[in-house]
Write a structure and sequence with these properties.
Elements (H helix, E strand, L loop, with lengths): L1 E14 L2 H5 L12 E17 L6 E15 L12 E3 L5 E4 L1 E3 L11 H8 L4 H6 L4 H10 L2 H17 L2 E7 L6 H17 L4 E9 L8 H18 L5 E5 L7 H13 L3 E6 L7 H7 L4 E4 L5 H8 L4 E4 L1 H7 L6 H7 L3 E3 L13 H12 L3 H7 L2 H6 L17 E3 L7 H4 L4
Parallel strand pairs: 1-4, 1-5, 6-7, 7-8, 8-9, 9-10, 10-11, 11-12, 12-13
Antiparallel strand pairs: 1-2, 2-3, 5-14
Helix pairs in contact: 5-6, 6-7, 7-8, 9-10, 10-12
The protein binds N-(iminomethyl)-L-glutamic acid and fe (iii) ion.
N-(iminomethyl)-L-glutamic acid binds next to helix 4.
């Protein structure tokens, strides 16, 4: 239930992003940012319950509900006089809350020694082939209690909030068994119950790898007949993702999994064309996936397929940086008309960071994206990749009160300052 309204006054600039929504995120341009100098925003609040899983402490928190009005400070409607005012004195820019639409938020352990081995010349594939990589994290995650996983992931959620992230996706995928995949998704649910100031969107990724020593077909059947139905029955996620790549899942296997997910009423996503080209971006477009993610090795045909589809291209430049590989063809994707989002890919193997602004710095420098393209990539377009764009991604009356009062006077200072 909505309670009182709060006014933010005298923002150095307020960027609504309304023009980006109007073009559904394609070809974002400077004039689409809806820049309002000396901006103001009015939002309603609501009181929600929270429960901290580790301490058992529960209580109430007042959080933002809906945006009521945005405009120039001088034009603030008189109906809001009397509401509490936070004056920003022209020091801070306000923008839509950042949306991190691809993370592997819940895992135990770390892979610092594998990172050191990679720095010494070993490749990601070498490490995976010798039993490390995703399997290292699967072992640590299976051995961790639900409480340990919660504590570790909550620290990452707190980091994300500090970086301006107000919506974060969280994939399972370091369990690779019915029991541990459900454990991870229950942790995601408990994270949401503990931190109502962010929205956490769970994605089921039981097809992240095959469990060590498992029969391939037997594990596929387990996903189809046990994991997916259990996730749907318990309402733990309504999005299903598959890692299609050499050494992981084939397009045909992904099709079986995602077809079953759709039968269960779930939406779909694909880890596509990351390590080698498998034409999985075109496959994602074909099956109507919300997004095709990674795309380091996407082909011209894949670019054309995404551009002609409703599937968002999610780029993860922190991963290319961390693996020292060539970046995704962002310019070609945007110029072809694809809707491009950017995310951290937070995970212990290929992108150990929650710092989405730092990923924007990499994107500005190495993908050559403009200010408008970067803005769209972590707001509306990321909301589109999670199918929450009817509520999030722009600062307009009626949208969720998800905003980021940045520490700086302009949006570009977020990524001009490197890894702050
Ligand atoms: O998104 N691509 C697949 N999965 C992760 C990496 C997983 C890992 O190395 O732990 C990714 O990059
Ligand atoms: Fe990923």
């Amino acid at each position: 239930m909505s309670e009182k309204s709060i006014i933010l006054l005298h923002a150095s600039e307020l960027l609504t992003g309304a023009g980006i929504r109007a073009k559904d995120g394609r070809h974002p341009k400077e004039e689409d940012l809806g820049r309002i100098p000396n901006g103001a925003l009015v939002y309603s609040t609501k009181t929600v319950s929270y429960t901290d899983f580790t301490t058992g402490k529960s209580g109430k928190k007042v959080v933002g509900d809906k945006i009521l009005w945005v405009g120039e400070s001088e034009a603030l409607p008189s109906e809001y006089s009397g509401s509490p005012v936070f004056d920003l004195y022209g020091r801070n820019a306000i923008m839509p809350g950042l949306i991190d639409c691809h993370t592997h938020l819940v895992f135990a352990g770390n892979r610092a020694s594998e990172f050191a081995a990679r720095c010494g010349g070993a490749s990601y594939a070498d490490i995976a082939a010798s039993g490390g990589g995703i399997q290292t994290t699967v072992n640590a995650t299976r051995n961790a209690t639900e409480e340990e996983l919660f504590r570790l992931a909550r620290a990452r959620v707190e980091d994300a909030h500090r970086y301006g992230i107000r919506t974060i996706e969280a994939k399972s995928g370091y369990g690779l068994s019915l029991e541990t995949e459900l454990k991870i998704l229950r942790v995601v649910k408990r994270l949401q119950e503990a931190t109502p100031e962010l929205e956490i969107i769970p994605t089921f990724l039981g097809a992240h790898d095959f469990p060590k020593g498992a029969d391939r077909e037997a594990y596929l059947i387990e996903i189809l007949d046990e994991q997916l139905p259990a996730v749907a029955r318990e309402g733990l996620a309504n999005v299903c993702d598959v890692f299609i790549d050499e050494g992981y899942y084939t397009v045909e296997e992904a099709e079986r999994i995602l077809t079953r997910a759709k039968q269960l009423g779930m939406k779909t996503k694909v880890h596509a064309d990351e390590l080698v080209n498998t034409e999985s971006a075109a496959f994602a477009a074909d099956i109507g996936a919300l997004s095709a993610d990674h795309l380091l090795k996407i082909s011209p045909a894949g670019i054309a397929a995404l551009a002609a589809s409703e599937t968002t291209a999610v780029l993860l430049p922190g991963t290319a940086f961390y693996l020292k590989t060539a970046h995704a063809p962002a310019r070609a994707l945007i110029d072809a008309g694809a809707r491009v989002a950017i995310s951290t890919d937070l995970n212990p193997g290929t992108s150990m960071t929650s710092n989405l602004p730092a990923v924007l710095t990499i994107s500005a420098l190495y993908l050559g994206l403009t200010r408008a393209e970067l803005f769209a990539a972590v707001t509306y377009n990321a909301a589109r990749a999670l199918d929450v764009h009817s509520r999030k991604g722009t600062l307009e009356a009626g949208m969720d009160a998800d905003f980021f009062v940045t520490p700086y006077a302009t949006f570009e200072e977020l990524y001009y300052r490197f890894a702050w």
